[in-house]
Amino acid sequence: MLEKIYHLGYAVEDIEAAARFYEEHFGVRVGEPEEIEEQGIVATMFEVGESMIELVQPTRPDSPVGKFLEKRGEGFHHVAFQVDDLEAALKGLKENGVELIDEKPRVGAGGARMAFLHPKGAHGVLTELVELPDKDQG
Amino acid sequence: MLEKIYHLGYAVEDIEAAARFYEEHFGVRVGEPEEIEEQGIVATMFEVGESMIELVQPTRPDSPVGKFLEKRGEGFHHVAFQVDDLEAALKGLKENGVELIDEKPRVGAGGARMAFLHPKGAHGVLTELVELPDKDQG
Fold this sequence. Notes:
By secondary structure, chain A is α+β, with helices and mostly antiparallel strands. Chain A has helices at 15-26, 64-72, 86-95, and strands at residues 2-11, 34-36, 41-48, 51-58, 75-83, 106-107, 113-117, 127-131.
């Protein structure tokens, strides 16, 4: 059911500084930051093997990532696992009593369908499931 | 330099319960827990794509993972990236002024050479670099 780690989300105070850190010290290529106004964030990605690291900086202190930073400081924010069939995965989790943030898929960046499990139900790890629009990409 | 995400380490209160969670709800196969007395932990792994998730339960409250759990609760503990040449990676990071926990490689489970960067120097993420003994495995 879990095909791969799709990305890890890192909450950062300064996305330019964090991107520079990974570019200078680890030789990765970080994409251009994009603002996602609805979520109150600026985000960018870089590849590591079959996965990506997503750097996320809040644009407002009252956004979820803004509140996270205030409470916990910079660091790991969430993991996203790629799944083949998100609807089926959510249905199974719900039937098993696993606490979900999103009971139905939402559409995220690039048309991917995604949903979050509640960290309380997943041993403290904010866990996202992602289904890519073109399954051939998986 | 970063070949792939080798594993994510999750700190858990009860490794059997956490293993059951991932087995029952995500269909993964979790290995037998092993005690690593020197680190004051019991750990086990399961595969996700080319990566692994490591579940780590402290065996003593004064071990690093025990202190982490007391302070932050269950959740993401560290990420390990596989690198080709750990000595060269550490040398470069040190020359660039990146704060390291281990300036020299240590030998971890299965003969892998590993070293930790300090989370303060890596935007709050406890980051491990791993070089596998048999490079053909990478």
